Amino acid sequence: MFQTPQWPIWDQDDLAAVTEVVQSGKWWCGAPLNQVGKNLWAFQEEFAQFQEVKHCIAVANGTVAIEVVLLALGIGLGDEVIVPDYTFVASASAVIAANAVPIFCDIDRDTFVLDANKAETLITPRTKAIIAVHLGGNPVDMKRLGEIAEKHHISLIEDCAHAHGSRYHGKRAGNWSAAGTFSFQASKTLTAGEGGAIICNDDALADALYSISDCGRKKGEYFYAHFQYGTNYRLSEFHAALLRKQLQHFPQQHALRNTRAKYLTEHLNAIEGIRVMQPTPGTEELGYYIYPFVYDPACFGQISNAEFKNRLHQAGIPTADCYPPLHTLVCFKNRQLRKGIDYSSANWGGTKSEDQYFPVVTEVYGRSIQFPQNLLLAEQSQLDQVVDVIQYLRSKERGC
């Protein structure tokens, strides 16, 4: 019988860490020069070290992490920010929250992430930034995107919610831009149920990020002095304590996911009609928050996406829902967003949200199957069962 490892994985050390916070009575972090709890400050240092970056600012979740970066970069009313059409809604809703306008970019057919060359065609005088989402942990072509950003004098932001530990051309994800944002939501490969972080290498930007995330305060200044717009996006001591323990186990899990993914990819790609997400050239490690592939219906008796998933479920193999393309979401199609903001320049809404304008993501989404990341922590024999089920399904349906 197929068995997927539980997620999240925890032990008595995790329980002890949270218990210690409760018993200490120090349930929040305090301020940089007046620290109360120890865990948030320690986690920021430890995560920065793991991601090989100078600064880490822990926040409440991955969504507000993006919002804080946008505000710190001065992006706001009327500005346009290019985001991939294939991502969780937060990549775009954070832009909406900053009173800016997201512009949706189609994806690369092989890597399933933002197509850098298509992104360049969407740049206008109003464009202030591009958010590169490393979907499934697969890095966007950041070298090419960096060239584009420099040429057009716009900022780059990395949404690394899926890319903990991903490495591209020698650098960790999040190090190729002004700032990288992370999520520690319950399904993520590094999790405390909720939480987020921002990483960067610029001292001045790090100070601005901290200030915005902590009520407009400045490091070293009086606690009740507020110097700019900011709000309370602080991470709790409970989440930080859990993250510190989870981070200790992460490198081993990360390495195992990459080993298992390599094995599974080799065997699935050998099945006619199956094409696994291709790592972006230059990728050395992948976060593998999800493991996506597309199937050719002609090779599987023209069965629907829903039926393909149903056959896997009947064999006990779990799947993860794919994100609907942003252009299909009701809030964007009907422009049910911020009052008083002009979205007429957007490339979505009404008839502009029709699938024909986003051909690659429409095709990929309609034929995509995704496995959850914890499937890659299973024994190799379990992965053989996955391959066998898909091979049997193809032969049974007498496809191409």
Mean pLDDT: 97
N-to-C CA distance: 29 Å
User: How many alpha or pi helices?
Assistant: 12
Number of strands: 15
What percentage of the residues does DSSP assign to strands (E)?
Answer: 15-25%
What shape does the CA trace take?
Answer: globular
- What is the CATH class designation of the largest domain? Alpha Beta
Q: What is the total domain count?
A: 2
**H/E series:** HEEHEHEHEHEHEEEEEHHEEEHHHEH
Structural class, by secondary structure, is alpha/beta
GO molecular function, one term: pyridoxal phosphate binding
Active site: 188
Pfam families: DegT_DnrJ_EryC1
InterPro entries: DegT/StrS_aminotransferase, PyrdxlP-dep_Trfase, PyrdxlP-dep_Trfase_major, PyrdxlP-dep_Trfase_small
Give a written overview of the molecule.
- The structure is a single chain.
- The chain is of the alpha/beta class.
- It has 2 domains: 12-247, Type I PLP-dependent aspartate aminotransferase-like (Major domain) (Aspartate Aminotransferase, domain 2), CATH 3.40.640.10; 250-397, Aspartate Aminotransferase, domain 1 (Alpha-Beta Complex).
- Helix content is 36%, strand content 16%.
- The chain is built from 12 helices and 15 strands.
- Strands 3-11-10-7-6-4-5 form a 7-stranded mixed beta sheet, with helices on both faces. A 3-stranded antiparallel beta sheet has the order 9-8-13, with no helix packed on it.
- Strand 4, helix 4 (90-97) and strand 5 form a beta-alpha-beta unit.
- Helix 1 runs antiparallel to helix 8 (237-268) and helix 3 (62-72) packs across helix 7 (203-213).
- The radius of gyration is 22 Å and the shape is globular.
- The two termini are 29 Å apart.
